[in-house]
């Protein structure tokens, strides 16, 4: 039995959730998010929330139960509060700036890295070494953060690179003479 899947999803005031034609649609103050339903899971609109349960007793249905409940919860959270990730850039000469819908990264390469910001995602740079990514869709926010981090993963000797805020980088001592 899924402990996460058993919990009903509470839908706050100002948010409407509909389940029809194989699509779960959640509409709130920040916009509308949709997700296709999974065949082995049944979704029910109950008073004040959504209940997710396996449609049958197969291993596949039970395996997807908790994940599907979390995905619907992410839709509700996305249209009410949204999601955000913060990246910290460490290194001499490493910096980031936003110009319109383009993110420009200077990461020690012979060229600048220009990244197009996808629709529905907002990228800000409060200072040259901080990048804040926010949006409604948790998957898109996480994907954008991972693509930025991919250009310079933090290295263990000097700690240079792009890391998530709060991420611990295990440091190594280096060579001794």
Structural class: alpha+beta
The total count of strands amounts to 13
| Beta-strand percentage range | 35-45%
Rg over CA atoms: 21 Å
Largest sheet: 4 strands, antiparallel
Q: What are the segments in which pLDDT stays under 50 over at least 5 consecutive residues?
A: none
**Mean pLDDT reading:** 93
Which shape, going by the Cα principal axes?
elongated
Question: Helical content, roughly?
Answer: 10-25%
H and E order = HEEEEEEHEEEEEEHE
**Straight-line distance between termini:** 57 Å
Continuous helix count: 3
Strand order of the largest sheet: 11-12-7-13
Helix and strand arrangement:
Blueprint: H1 3-6, E1 9-10, E2 16-20, E3 23-28, E4 31-36, E5 41-46, E6 49-54, H2 59-80, E7 83-90, E8 95-99, E9 102-106, E10 113-116, E11 121-124, E12 130-135, H3 138-150, E13 161-164
Antiparallel strand pairs: 1-6, 2-3, 3-4, 5-6, 7-12, 7-13, 8-9, 9-10, 11-12
Describe the structure.
The chain is of the alpha+beta class. It is 22% helix and 38% strand. The protein has a 4-stranded antiparallel beta sheet, with helices on one face. Strand 9 and strand 10 form a beta hairpin. The chain is elongated, with a radius of gyration of 21 Å. The termini are far apart. The relative contact order is 0.14.
């Amino acid at each position: 039995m899924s402990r996460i899947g058993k919990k009903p999803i509470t839908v706050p005031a100002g948010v409407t959730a509909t389940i029809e034609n194989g699509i779960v649609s959640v509409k709130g103050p920040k916009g509308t998010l949709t997700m296709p339903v999974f065949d082995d899971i049944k979704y029910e609109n109950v008073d004040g929330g959504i209940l997710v349960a396996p449609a049958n007793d197969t291993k596949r249905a039970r395996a997807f139960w908790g994940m599907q409940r979390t995905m619907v919860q992410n839709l509700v959270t996305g249209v009410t509060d949204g999601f955000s990730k913060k990246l910290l850039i460490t290194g001499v000469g490493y910096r980031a700036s936003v110009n319109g819908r383009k993110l420009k990264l200077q990461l020690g390469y012979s060229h600048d890295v220009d990244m197009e910001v996808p629709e529905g995602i907002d990228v800000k740079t409060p200072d040259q070494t901080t990048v804040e990514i926010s949006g409604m869709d948790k998957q898109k926010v996480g994907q954008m953060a991972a693509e930025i981090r991919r250009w310079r993963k933090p290295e263990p000797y000097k700690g240079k690179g792009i890391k998530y805020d709060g991420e611990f980088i295990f440091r190594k001592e280096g060579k001794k003479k």
